[in-house]
Amino acid sequence: MKNVTDSFVSLGQWPSAVSFGFNTDILATNPINLSVVIGVLVFFGKGVLSDLLDNRKQRILNTIRNSEELRGIAIEQLEKARARLRKVEMEADQFRMNGYSEIEQEKSNLITSTYKTLEQLENYKNETIRFEQQRVINQVRKRVFQQALQGALGTITSCLNNELHLRTINANIGMLSAMKEITD
How far apart (Å, rounded) are the C-alpha atoms in residues 112 and 99? Predict the structure, then answer.
């Protein structure tokens, strides 16, 4: 890779490469050279330009033909759509004439089903209320029982002295022993 870049660097060192370039001073250039260049461009460019223009002309003609075909298709589709519209309008008139009784029937069916649904929702609501009431009542019972139990324990502990406490324990032990003997 270094050899390739060295070869380009060495080209810049040639004395003839320094003098090569375009002379942009129009008055100093040779008019004959300019006419030769313009003649070559016209000679070779004329074929390319005519080909480009012919291609453009063909594309425009093809576009016009396609547009006319599409226009014809669109007119046919428009006529079909108009015929369908007339048919649908006639059917709509028939539905209007025959449909009012069906609409009233559907309306009454809808109202009936709505009332049934509302009744079911009311029943669900009442069941939910009863369930919640029962749950709250159970919570209140539980809380009252806990408070009563705490009050009873407080009363028992305040009334019990050591002697009464020992007697109660002994009596319970005796009952448990008797129950054990009965089960054995």
Answer: 20
Contact 11/17 with Cβ under 8 angstroms?
A: yes
Q: How many angstroms separate the CA atoms of 122 and 118, rounded?
A: 6
Residues comprising the chain, all counted: 184
Q: How remote is the C-alpha of 61 from its chain's centroid? A: 46
Quote the CA–CA distance of 29 and 37 in Å, as a whole number.
12
Number of Cβ atoms within 10 Å of the Cβ of 160: 13
Choose the weakest-confidence range: 21-35, 37-51, 83-97, 113-127. Answer: 21-35
The pLDDT tens digits of the residues spanning 142-163 come to 999 899 888 888 877 776 677 7
Give the distance from CA 56 to its chain's centroid: 46
